[in-house]
Amino acid sequence: MKTITTRVEFLAHALAIEEEAAERYAVFADQMQVTNNPEVATLFREMARLEDEHARRIEEMSGDKPLPRIDPWAFDFGDAEPPEAVDYTATHYLMTPYQALGLVLNAEQRAAEFFQRIADGDGEADMRRLAAEFADEEREHVERVRRWRGKYPPPEPHWDEDPDPPNELE
Amino acid sequence: MEQLSTRQAALKPKDYKSDNKPVWCPGCGDFSVLSAFTKAMSAMTLDPERVAVISGIGCSSRIPAYLNVYGFHAVHGRALPVAIGLKITRPDLTVLVAGGDGDGFSIGGNHFLQACRRNVDITYVVMDNQVYGMTKGQASPTTAPDWMRSKLTPHGTRINPFYPLVIALASGANFIARASSNDPNGTARVIAEAVEHPGFSFVQVLSPCVTFRPEQRDWKKIVRPAPVAPTADPAVAARRLMTDDNFFIGTLFKGGRAPFESGFAPRAEVAGELERSFGLTA
Amino acid sequence: MTAGGILLEVAAQAGYHGIMTRSSGPQIRGGEAAAMLRISTFPVESHADVFDILVGVDWLNAERFRAEIPLGPDSLVVGDLDGRPPAEYLATGARLLALPLSRLAREREGGRENMVALGAISALAALPRGLFEGVLNALLGRKGSEAVVSGMACIEAGAQCVAGESGTFALAPPAPTRGAIWNISGNEAAGLGAIRGGVRFVAAYPITPATELLEWMAPALEQVGGVLVQAEDELASVNQLIGASFGGTPSLTATSGPGLALMTESIGLAVASETPVVVVDVMRGGPSTGIPTKSEQGDLNIALYGLHGDAPHLVLAPLSVADCLFTTQWAVHLAEKLQTAAIVLSDQSLGQTRALIERPAEVAFVSGRSIQRTPVAGYQRYALGGDGVSPMALPGTPGCQYTADGLEHAPSGTPSSRAEDHRRQLDKRRDKLTGHDYGDHWALIEGDGDVVVLTWGSSLAPVREARRSLAGRGIDVRIVAPRLLMPVQPARMREALSGASRVLVVEQSHGAQFLHYLQAFYPRERGYESLAQPGPLPIRPEQVVERFNPRGSR
Ligand SMILES: Cc1ncc(C[n+]2csc(CCOP(=O)(O)OP(=O)(O)O)c2C)c(N)n1
Ligand code: SF4
């Protein structure tokens, strides 16, 4: 994060984070739709919408000035993956809303921490203020997702057991 | 920050996706590889219509239809020759090949060797999950000999596994790398590098099959970047592979062989020219 | 072999027609070999029932060729004074003419027995000797070179020593005027047809007897900016074609039975993905490695039925050496136009026979592959409707990206296992072939007698020969030889066979594959008679004649 020092750099990173999150939730929503898990599909679809909204807001903040285009691997997230992205191997076709929201919760938490680190860092003051606002917002999401998850029961012990074997297609 | 490029974003990664929804199991590493393809293409600002992705058969080989580029979903094991025929006659296109370890190293194994040798300027991405996903979990060439979870080989294969990077190097591939699906951005970078490197580029992506090899979810804890820069010296690359545990990630080898040149430039037949050899000698 | 080539070329320059086939022993180098020529005042495509002259330059193991070289009481066996022609040849009643071939060669510097023998043949057949010099010059190098001088001296000596027999087998003077003459093999003709048809990419794996087609094409393709790739195997060859064709380049491969067997899975892919490809199968004796150097029409079944699933495709067969050009060119045109796979069934006897033919007229087929050149909203690669041929977008065309698929698919190309999609795409792939008008090219029909011979491919040549001979005995035979074997043309066949009292099916296959095909697709109330014989021996005209005019009758 040493290299995120200006407002445009920060916005470019924030945009990438939100876009990746939106994209991934959209993929997960499709996965659940394809594997007939409509409840979790709807949930991921909603998350994709929220993250996308967030991304559009960031774009607006950047005004007319286009953000620098950074190759996906050249971002400085302090990790290979952007903080708010849920690992591709984390989903399961039988997963319950409780589990799905658990993944979301962790992601929001990682995002909040990421933004907070920048707010606490030594970049431009203007940028740090913005990062602090983002961190607050993510913490708010964390709480909201926690409440949301509270509406669902935790999974049964053998939630991933399937009496049917996988299909052979080709 | 390594590069702060100001290239205008023509297309975002998701613009390289088609409207088809993957049939893969949620959690499959191939989702990440799909994302890496789109990121690499977006980063290289490729025109989707100038890209062709060719595949064989298997879960991983379903990838072309999920992309908004030209694709060919061919038969099991034969993606490389399809791609080679295309690239030789359409050098203007960016041609990638995608598939699984069974498709590429078993039924298509000889094409892999010959493609490395021929060094046509294409990029081959193998999603290696050490299993045949599509046919319900049989051992593949890269499966460990003592893996006993397949009904067809209940005592393990008890035969030596295939080391794709070693084979690629020995056969003459001009670019050799390993990536991991738990890092789609890193995978995208390697794919972009592979595409930009002339000649035949080979990328092995460790891509878990969560259905038949659920333990592969733990690969993300084992994989790590190789602590060395790519080499152009095959001997150095070979030495490194001697101590490779199959979980080092990164570009191993960037060779300097000139890619295969065919001189393809079709023209209409000049009437009579070819007939001369049939005329009588007098 | 060299002497045979010289003789054929001289005959051509003298204005005659002719063919040359060859046969050899099992050795890779050296060993016995026979060059078999027929020289004639009219166009010929096969050997006659007997040879007039058999010249033995060396009789070692020559009995191997006995079955391929039938002789009769009027035949002449020419050999060296010291040689011993195998008894089998003389047992035919043929007369022996012993000449000092070897002494005459020894007496001339650099002299060779085969040249002395050539001289003897030229005198027996009354061929103009002056022509040999030009041919030797072209073949052996510069004018006046030692080889040419000694060659001519030997030819002269050979001619002198049969002076007493001169003209025994004299040919009638050739027909006075005719167009340009080509000296060409079926393999070369097929290669030229491919290039004329627009083929610019060939990927192939060497195999007897198709290799020469590839050897001709490699440099020829270079002349038109095309490429021949020697692939690692036939699986790679056919798939490279599919890739090149997907990119828009008409593509072809040549192989023989074993290679065709390896290719069949991907020929099915070409059919399902509607990617034009052409596979020329120069058939040899089968099954398995079989008899690689000899001809047989045994791949008909695999060509017709070898693909898995319901996979309608084109199967064509050239009818003569010269026709290898037309049929291959036509096959390329049809594959491109109908976006499917075409298998061309040539064979060793067509492919490796050298024939003197009149320069074939150039044909140009109008319209090639239907291509989607401009962006279109909601492009569907496998769109239904019309004649079943849907415009193909080539990579590079913006807005038309699609994935070609061998999985059954919806019109968009997206995989689909729905009954409806399967049925519609099956219909599409069938109807585009059956609905096409193939015109008169579908078959060769000669004569209108009410006895009919139905044959195909290289078996046509002896049948035609038989027809000539039967005509001389007052029997008018009608020949029907389809060039297009798939899709079948029931209405046209019905018309071609109308009024037939007998239909004899002639083919070079042990299992009577052609007969069974006819029975399945062209059933005939009065049935078919069959003359089916396996390779390696060619069908002799006399075998056909026998069926209509048995010895002893009349
Ligand atoms: C000629 C042929 N043989 C067998 C099959 C069945 N088959 C389909 S996919 C596959 C293996 C796929 O394994 P891999 O290439 O590792 O891909 P994955 O599914 O693991 O991604 C097999 C054997 C086939 N389609 N074609
Ligand atoms: S079976 Fe394995 S490889 Fe295939 S989609 Fe499922 S997880 Fe992926």
How is this structure best described in words?
The complex is a heterotrimer of chains A (170), B (282) and C (554). Chain A has helices at residues 7-34, 38-61, 97-119, 125-150. Chain A is mainly α. Chain A has a single domain, classed as Ferritin, CATH 1.20.1260.10. In chain B, strands 2-1-3-4-6-5-8-7 form an eight-stranded mixed sheet, sandwiched between helices. Chain B has a single domain (22-277), classed as 3-Layer(aba) Sandwich (Rossmann fold). Residues 1-8 of chain B have low confidence and may be disordered. By secondary structure, chain B is α/β, with parallel strands linked by helices. Chain C has 554 residues and is of the alpha/beta class. Chain C folds into four domains: 2-165, 3-Layer(aba) Sandwich (Pyruvate-ferredoxin Oxidoreductase, domain 3); 183-358, Thiamin diphosphate (ThDP)-binding fold, Pyr/PP domains (Rossmann fold); 370-436, no CATH class; 439-548, Rossmann fold (3-Layer(aba) Sandwich). The longest helix of chain C is centred in the middle third of the chain and has 17 residues, at 257-273. Chain C is globular, with a radius of gyration of 26 Å. Chain C starts with a helix and ends in a 6-residue tail after the last helix. The chains are: A mainly alpha (170), B alpha/beta (282), C alpha/beta (554). Chains in contact: A-B, B-C. Chain A binds chain B through residues 3-4, 9, 19, 23, 27-28, 30-35, 66, 68-76, 80-81, 87-93, 95, 165-166, 168-170, and chain B through 1-9, 12-14, 21-29, 31-32, 35, 39, 42-43, 57-58, 76, 134-137, 181-186, 188-189, 192, 208, 210-212, 217, 220. β2 of chain B pairs parallel with β16 of chain C, so a sheet runs across the interface. The site of thiamine diphosphate has 19 residues of chain B, from β3 and α3.
